[in-house]
């Protein structure tokens, strides 16, 4: 089609809300017989920007979605799809991190207390989320859905590299009861086989170290740390100050030096499951 840039790989709409937006945009545009250049002209955007959005390489804006609805006579369909990409129903303090997480090419997560959200089973996540004071059943279901949705990044064609370090105490703290914990640790063993996931454990024998101060995640984009999420009470926060990120990166390296190597960590996980099976 004249005025059409390279479409690149096929987008899987199940990959993420942004992938669904890109997939549907391309489908509706092609159904209307419009090139990317023509849609760009109708919306006031360049054809290259339309192409990048259809490839999920650029995040759409609400204005872009509104203009696409108008150009393609879609009666608000693209705006509704856009809303799903913004995590509007997520807690306000956590939305910036969710957007960072979707852009990252690597995530480095230290957790001294709980299994990280990206690796939680549904039952484990429900038990954790239910402890928040004043949470209604409807709010609990919504937050659980959001947490499970985050994990979709591991199903992408090019998922981020996820490096996780947990304290051994995480494996023994009974969250949700014995069966929930057994299922959770077995899932950690399973997900550790994913080519983009590395799990390490800091053993009980380790003495005082800098990770005891709290959990955090450092996000990288093409090898460059650019944002971090720091756990705190009543809730954490997203930071992008270079000095803070550098300090957290140094702490992560120090914690990893205390952790068991990957294969030994997986063997420890297997021992924990075997102990729970007795």
From TrEMBL:
Q: Name one Pfam family in it.
A: HTH_31
The superkingdom of the source organism is: Bacteria
Instruction: Identify a single GO molecular function assigned to this protein.
Output: DNA binding
Residue span(s) of domain HTH cro/C1-type: 25-61
Name the Gene3D superfamilies on file.
lambda repressor-like DNA-binding domains
Protein name (Swiss-Prot/TrEMBL): Transcriptional regulator with XRE-family HTH domain
Q: Which organism is it from?
A: Sphaerisporangium siamense
